[in-house]
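Q: My labmate handed me this sequence with no annotations at all. I'd like to see what the chain might look like in three dimensions before we decide whether it's worth expressing. Could you predict it?
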Amino acid sequence: MWGLQISAGRGPVEVRRFVARLAAALTAELGGRGVRVTRETRQGPAETPGSVTLWLAGPDRPVVADLLGTHCEVRRSAARGRQGRKRWFAGVSLHWMPAPVAALDLREVTFQVSRARGPGGQHVNKRETAVRAVHGPTGLSVRAEGERSQAANRARALARLTAMVVAAEEACAAGAAHQRRAAHDRVERGRPVRIW
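A: Here is what I predict for the chain of 196 residues:
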């Protein structure tokens, strides 16, 4: 799932108000482009959030390149008087957030059977009980051969493969969360892509 993050960076309350207004404006603009916003996540109070993430529908990268970067709002703050600053900058960035995996789709897993290794006396290598499971989208694979039946090894391999895929997805999600947090510090004052 793609998330369009609007961040105030480390800016004052005026920038946070701009983030709330910008989120509403971008939601309306995305709707006009045919991009559906499925939900909205706000960090902080509703009127003055530090950041707003608009979660966009669809697995494909949405066409929002012209919206990414620094946005500038020119508005005087009543609290700062006539001599105060009147330009407020917010950053807009696009991030991928993978959906959590609860169970594997068996259509994406291929199974290969082979003979088990190890001691067994006169009965060794007589039956193909070892199972190797390969997850197609990630390329992760696991081999199970500790059980006496192919069905038990298949269940064990599938359980271990599910745990590996979940761990890989969690690592990817942690990396994506780190990138979203780091985007707060990359708000550039100046060179805006759009002035409001």
